[in-house]
């Protein structure tokens, strides 16, 4: 009598996760790959089980990501990892860039500068009010305070919920994730900083030349 088919047995040598599965990696390793590709990053502090698998299976994970023109970045000290496009000039862009408004980018810069200035002192906690005050210089004459506050609040929410570079720790306060040091490269930061310093020096009126709705891109 023929044995009934079981969903996880494909043949005598291959164990699959579903009927027709031809993948070679175990379930746990595939989950790490998927988490990295989905982004924005894998946190060891918040996803300890996946982090452990990443460290154990790092070689094969790097290999599979390279097959997709992706480079794995791991910060073992701060326990986070993410993927970015392969550095080869002719490599296709596998990671979709995140569209950021002018204010998103300005806030990202402020948070990164705050993180670097407090490096080595443990967790970096920042208040929503103090960040908003630093952004006030970028309010253009065509934006009233209520409208500007709404836009800045939208950027704060994006930092928490989409980019995950802020983690709420209480009323209107959040911890800046150390991953922010690497998510935006040094060349991008220098270009952004130079432009924002010029605007701050010459006055908010000049921001009108760069619409608050214009989008920058970051990986």
SSE topology:
Blueprint: H1 27-38, E1 42-43, H2 48-56, H3 58-67, E2 70-75, E3 80-85, E4 98-101, H4 102-117, E5 125-127, H5 128-135, H6 145-161, E6 166-170, E7 173-176, H7 180-183, H8 186-202, E8 215-218
Antiparallel strand pairs: 1-3, 2-3, 4-8, 5-7, 6-7
What does this entry look like structurally?
Mean pLDDT is about 80; it is low at about 1-15 and about 205-215. Helix 1 (about 25-40) packs across helix 2, helix 4 packs across helix 5 and helix 4 (about 100-115) crosses helix 6 (about 145-160). The chain folds into 2 domains: about 1-95, Aspartate Aminotransferase, domain 1; about 100-219, Arc Repressor Mutant, subunit A (Orthogonal Bundle), CATH 1.10.10. The protein is of the alpha+beta class and about 220 residues long. The longest helix has 17 residues, at about 145-160. The chain is about 40% helix and about 15% strand. It has a 3-stranded antiparallel β-sheet. The chain has a 3-stranded antiparallel β-sheet with strand order 5-7-6. The protein has helices at about 25-40, 50-55, 60-65, 100-115, 130-135, 145-160, 180-185, 185-200, and strands at about 40-45, 70-75, 80-85, 100, 125, 165-170, 175, 215-219.
């Amino acid at each position: 009598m023929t044995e009934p088919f079981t969903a996880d047995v494909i043949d005598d040598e291959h164990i699959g996760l579903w009927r027709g599965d031809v993948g070679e990696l175990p379930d746990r390793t595939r989950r790490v790959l998927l988490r990295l590709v989905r982004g924005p990053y894998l946190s060891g502090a918040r996803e300890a089980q996946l982090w452990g698998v990443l460290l154990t299976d790092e070689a094969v994970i790097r290999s599979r990501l390279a097959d997709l023109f992706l480079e794995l970045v791991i910060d073992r000290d701060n326990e986070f990892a993410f993927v970015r496009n392969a550095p080869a000039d002719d490599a296709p862009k596998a990671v979709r860039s995140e569209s950021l408004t002018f204010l998103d980018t300005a806030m990202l810069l402020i948070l990164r500068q705050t993180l670097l200035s407090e490096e080595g002192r443990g967790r970096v906690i920042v208040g929503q009010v103090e960040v908003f005050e630093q952004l006030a210089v970028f309010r253009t004459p065509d934006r009233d305070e209520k409208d500007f506050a709404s836009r800045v609040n939208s950027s704060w929410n994006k930092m928490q919920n989409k980019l995950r570079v802020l983690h709420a720790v209480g009323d209107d306060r959040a911890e800046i994730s150390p991953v922010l040091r690497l998510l935006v490269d040094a060349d991008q930061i220098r270009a952004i900083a130079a432009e924002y310093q010029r605007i701050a020096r010459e006055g908010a009126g000049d921001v009108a030349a760069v619409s608050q709705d214009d989008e920058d891109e970051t990986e």
